[in-house]
Design brief:
The chain is 18% helix and 15% strand. The protein is α+β, with helices and mostly antiparallel strands. The chain has a 4-stranded antiparallel beta sheet with strand order 5-6-7-8. It has a two-stranded antiparallel ribbon with strand order 1-2.
């Protein structure tokens, strides 16, 4: 696979497989690219055009996606842990069947990794709609994990405010 700079045509990466970890792909034109299952961890994709790219199951952990165009990209099951999405365009991107209207909010450093999108709140492996989370009783939360109820009581108000902000966009 050859990846070229969209402005100069310079070959940025030449690989026979989908291991692009640590690759320098700044400004690359990867629109409509099939990058399913690709390892793009720690890759520099700043200013890259990934519009309409298929990134299902791709490992984008720690990747620099600042200013990248991810509009209409399929990010289903992509690993975005610690990815830099500052000023990335995620309009219309598919995140597990949800068409994003704005950049997700990621929260690190708590017991579980948190993702807040326009419609869903994901805490660890639990992904539910904002309204479902708001309506869960203590028994439902407690059934998710032994430490879930204490976590939820501490962070519920803050997380639900984030959900309201994301929903209102």
């Amino acid at each position: 696979m050859q990846i070229k700079n969209r402005f100069t045509g310079e070959v940025l990466h030449d690989s026979g497989n989908a291991d692009l970890s640590n690759a320098d792909l700044r400004n690359a034109n990867l629109s409509n690219a099939d990058l399913r299952n690709a390892d793009l961890s720690y890759a520099d994709l700043s200013n890259a055009d990934l519009s309409n790219a298929d990134l299902r199951n791709a490992n984008l952990s720690n990747a620099d996606l600042s200013n990248a165009n991810l509009s209409n990209a399929d990010l289903s099951y992509a690993n975005l842990i610690k990815a830099n999405l500052i000023k990335a365009n995620l309009r219309g991107a598919n995140r597990l069947g949800e068409k994003l209207k704005s950049n997700p909010v990621f929260v690190y450093g708590l017991t579980w990794f948190i993702t807040v999108t326009n419609e869903f709140l994901t805490i660890g492996c639990q992904r539910h709609s904002h309204s479902d989370w708001a309506g869960f009783d203590d028994a439902r939360i407690e059934s998710m994990h032994s430490g879930a109820i204490a976590f939820w009581r501490k962070w519920k108000t803050t997380l639900m405010l984030m959900c309201a902000e994301q929903s209102g966009l």
